[in-house]
Amino acid sequence: EPRAITVFGTEASKAAAVITSTLPGARLIFEGQTRGYEIKLPVQLGRATTEEDNIALMEFYDNLLKIIPGRAFNNGKWSLCKVKPISSSDNSFNNIISYQWWTDKD
User: Fold this and answer.
1) What are the tens digits of pLDDT across the range 61-98?
2) Domain range holding 88?
3) Do both 51 and 15 map to the same domain?
4) How far apart are CA 37 and CA 55, in angstroms?
């Protein structure tokens, strides 16, 4: 399967990274994902093609990886929030994912 950044593009892959990194459960990050690598490395090959680091994406992941160890994400409680339309003709709410983390100390 292709890497997320090649399928979704940079901005959507950032959104996916935030969601998958802040949901309950294991946080899986593939080798090269935080550097913006686009070429999938077959496991059988054992050697990678040289790619340029995506500095902006590396900074994004640096910031994301700093917040993940936080108390709420590891010891907190999680719940899905209901997203509602602002009017009867509004369907844009279907494109929004909303959830919250909290701790008893918050």
Assistant:
1) 999 999 999 888 888 999 999 999 999 999 999 999 99
2) 71-106
3) yes
4) 11
